[in-house]
Amino acid sequence: MVLLFSTIYVKAQDYNISFMGSGESTVVDSVVVENLTQATTLKLEGSDILNLVGTLSIDNQVDDAQDVVIYPNPMKQISRISLYSNRAQNVEITISDVIGRTIIRSNVVAKMGNNIFEISNLPSGIYIVKTST
Fold it and tell me: Would residue 32 count as lying in a domain?
């Protein structure tokens, strides 16, 4: 029996940003916006509103507050979820199959620091592990 786990971090955020001046002049003629990731620039008129739309994607970067490692992966009989938390908090661990059915859902209390949870008795397959606080 071989089990393969995948961790997914999904992040998206939309922002609307408007500009106004303060001090002697409250008028903003223009604003230059630089996208450092894509090395592009955009010049906006002072009355324009900048609409930043987050892209929903699978992200391999782990949030500062929570680092998750699953080992061994692939799993033969037993695997462990190592979860680092920067503070004591409630964490929900959900294990789903590839078609989205929840196989295990567990609410645990993670202490500050490293926490280890054991997984066993899963049928062969590919699973998605989601942690949420």
Answer: yes
